[in-house]
Every structure is written in structure tokens, then in C-alpha cells.
């Protein structure tokens, strides 16, 4: 065989090998549930914000009035960031919209987004596959842009004498499998779990429309229990947050130690221990995301701009001050 032919054969063999390797990588990523396109897009978004320090440096912020809504977990972020955003970008006018005939939540916000009642939504839970399908049936797709990390705190009555709960015990309480506090090292007292209809389906759970009312019920009921975003629980004066662990020997408090006795509240309040959420030591954590309708219209521009603003150094600092963990 001539040297020229040998070279051609070697080149073809190399191309075939690279094709097989590339195909294997693609198959492994698909098998593992990794979306290469999403991975590249997410990396591009992150790199695009890596050097943006302030709200004023964000580009392509649209003008107009934009409705948004969703998770009550976001309330402290809205209070901390939105007025400053509107000061820097006065033509980017934000209007928080409550759902008609119900309480605000991640689920109601996403539903309103699908129904074209909102420009974008704020969520503290992952979007189910069927909701993605509903969006595609309506001619657009949804994109979740994470901007913060949050921890779930479990609230109980201050009189309840219990060291904490494991994740398994917590799940069993809300599944109706554990019904008395003496089953988890507490007193002989019936457990009264409170929840929301959008997320809690067990017949043993008493459904309460708002977080404020649920925490009030727990404060009034010695057997009560409720769970929600850590910043909404830990600063309270009338409920007690519980340590949580993957097992009973590793209970991790979601608050900074030492615990401030509730009798000293409101002069002194407990603070969220964001470090245990960031490190993963605390087992109940989640991402807060801006949910954007990808339809190539101004609503998409508004949602992406809002996310970019919160991903700036200034936005992440405000998120941290609101009691959440910076995602950058």
C-alpha cells in the first residue's frame, strides 16, 4: 500500500473512532438524563453573568409593565431586590399578581404563567414533566433559571420537647405513617400536620391556605407541625425550628448556634445558618428559580432580564441579606 493510501486509511480510522467516542458520550449523557444543550446553555448563562457586578450593567432590560407571581418563599427577595431594581431601571415596572380564588404558591404562579396571566413566575419547586408538556402543547417551552439556594425548615410548637427529626420521620409524618410524637422520641401527643393543598396529598394533613396562618396554627397547637422556607420560620417568635438529619445521629440545626430563646424575641431573633445549606450538610434544601416562558416575545425578555439582575453580584448580595444562599 502506498504512503498516500496509508495516510487516507489512518485519517478515516481516526474519524470513525472519534465518531464512536462522541456517540458513546452522547448516549451516556442521555442515559444519565443530562441534556447537553441545557448544560451548554446554563454554562453560557453563568459565564455571561460572571463579570456583571451591578443592576445598572445588565443589558437588554425591556421597558413596560410586567406581571409576575408565584412562590411565597420569594417574599423576602421581592422586598429586598425589587424596589432597587425599579430604582435603577424605572421603565422596567414589576407588578406582583395574586391568583384569583386561591393562595399564591409556586404551582399557582406556574399555572398563571401557562394561562398568559404572567410574564414570568417565581418558583421554589421543580416543574413537573406534565407541566412542561402542557407548555409545549400551547406553543412554547419553559425554562427554570436558578438564582438562589433555600432550605426547608420544620416548625413545631415551642412547648414540644424533641431533639429533631430525620428526613424519613418527617416524610412518614406527612404520609400519615407516624401519628404520635412518642413515635419519634417526643411526648405522648397526637401529631397535627399542617400543609398546603398544592403539595400535601395525605388525608391526615390539615390544609391551610397561607404560610402565615399555618404558622399561627402551629403556635397555638402543642402537637402542630408545618414546613416552609427557612427564612420564614427561623425568625419567628412563636414557633420553634427543628434540627433535621439524614439519620438520628446527625441532626443539623437550620439556624445559627447558639439558639436564641424565643422569650428574647423580637429584640433578638434567630438567624438562618446558610452555610449548612451551601455545604449540603443540611438535608432539606432546594433551588429558587425564575420560570421563563420561551416564546421569543417581550415576556421572555422580561423574565430573563429579571433572572440576570438577580444573578449579578449586587443581586446575589441582596439574596444573601434576605436569608438565602447565593448560587454563585
Question: Could you explain how this protein is built, in words?
Answer:
The chain has 328 residues and is α/β, with parallel strands linked by helices. It has two domains: 58-149 and 285-326, D-Maltodextrin-Binding Protein, domain 2 (3-Layer(aba) Sandwich), CATH 3.40.190; 151-272, D-Maltodextrin-Binding Protein, domain 2. 38% of the residues lie in helices and 19% in strands. The chain contains eleven helices and twelve strands. The chain has helices at residues 3-31, 36-49, 75-88, 106-114, 129-137, 167-174, 211-220, 230-234, 274-279, 298-310, 313-321; strands at residues 64-70, 92-96, 120-123, 141-156, 165-166, 192-195, 206-207, 224-229, 240-241, 244-245, 285-294, 325-326. Strands 1, 2, 3, 4, 6, 7, 8, 9, 11 and 12 form a ten-stranded mixed β-sheet that branches. α3 links the parallel β1 and β2 (92-96). α3 packs antiparallel against α11 (313-321). The longest helix has 29 residues, at 3-31. The chain is globular and about 60 Å long. The N and C termini lie far apart (58 Å). 36% of the residues are buried.
